[in-house]
Amino acid sequence: MGGDFGPQVVVPAAVEAAREGIAIALVGDEAVVNAELAGCDAEGLDIRVVHASQVVEMDDKPADALRRKKDSSIQVACRLVKDGEAHGVVSAGNSGATVACGMFVLGRIKGVQRPALAGILPTEKNPVVLIDVGANVDSKPQHLFQFGLMADVFARDVLGLDKPSVGILSIGEEEGKGNAAVREAFDLLKKSQLRFIGNVEGRDIFTGEVDIVVCDGFVGNVALKLSEGLATSLGRILKDELKSSWLSKLGTLLSMRAFKRFRKVTDYAEYGGAPLLGLKDIVLVAHGKSNQLAMVNCIRMAATSVRNRAHEHLVEKLADHQGLNGKSEKSAA
């Protein structure tokens, strides 16, 4: 029921994913969902509809959504996973409510202090994982260290990277740069088994020279939104320039294939959504403006996470670094 387009996009995307062999449970207003399903060729596919009488609106506060909307689609979906009736949750709705439900309905993996959202961004080479992009707005060094551990497992199991490189976002490349949290997290990452390459600056994110960039959720969210806005604005500027003269229009026609490839590389829809790492089960937060392609890719990512046992590998990774993990905070129920 979530996202700017709701069932009109989510249902067709789910049908497309189901055609690839992924079992789907569509959670929401049964009448609305079935009406959308009727317009799709879903006969014989492994799709079921689970009714939820409430919807978390985009302006609802996460805490209020948890308390007052216990039959909301996102809570019902999380309970399906908790009860073993599904393996993961994908939502394009209220991201704060999705994070809250993931934490308080599903709970954290033992030893994880703060779950983190991992954004996937295009670069000059392979996609880069930026973590955290908004789940935590005041991270401690231990949290940043664990973000690196969790992103390493995700990059291996979902993105297929053999030995992902990890950097921490700072204001300079030299060791010792950054605030106290960054400097302390640097030391923890340096002592770990990760392929840690040290500090990286904002300009390094899109070069493709680093696979994982660790940062506080406040900083990461600003970086994410800045990159989205910059890409959109550059696209508009380029479009206007290409229409400015007959010579430019001719050049556009000759370069159409290159422009299409460029658009595909920079389109967030190609990378699905942001996984909320550190929970006992799989939760993916899709962009509110997600189109059908974005939702299909988000569902595929969730299925890949389950098939490749990303959760089990994360538990193992945390155990391997128990000495650096420190004392965990009281886990969510």
UniProtKB/TrEMBL annotation:
GO molecular function, one term: acyltransferase activity
Its EC number(s): 2.3.1.274
Enzyme superclass (EC): transferase
Keyword Metal-binding recorded: no
Cell compartment(s), UniProt: Cytoplasm
Pfam families per record: FA_synthesis
Reactions catalysed: a fatty acyl-[ACP] + phosphate = an acyl phosphate + holo-[ACP]
Pathway: Lipid metabolism; phospholipid metabolism
Main subcellular location: cytoplasm
Keyword tRNA processing: no
Domain of life: Bacteria
UniProt entry keywords in alphabetical sequence: Acyltransferase, Cytoplasm, Lipid biosynthesis, Lipid metabolism, Phospholipid biosynthesis, Phospholipid metabolism, Transferase
Role of this protein: Catalyzes the reversible formation of acyl-phosphate (acyl-PO(4)) from acyl-[acyl-carrier-protein] (acyl-ACP). This enzyme utilizes acyl-ACP as fatty acyl donor, but not acyl-CoA.
PANTHER family for this protein: FATTY ACID/PHOSPHOLIPID SYNTHESIS PROTEIN PLSX (PTHR30100), PHOSPHATE ACYLTRANSFERASE (PTHR30100:SF1)
Entry's family note: Belongs to the PlsX family.
Record note on quaternary structure: Homodimer. Probably interacts with PlsY.
Name used for this protein in its record: Phosphate acyltransferase
Organism of provenance: Pseudodesulfovibrio portus
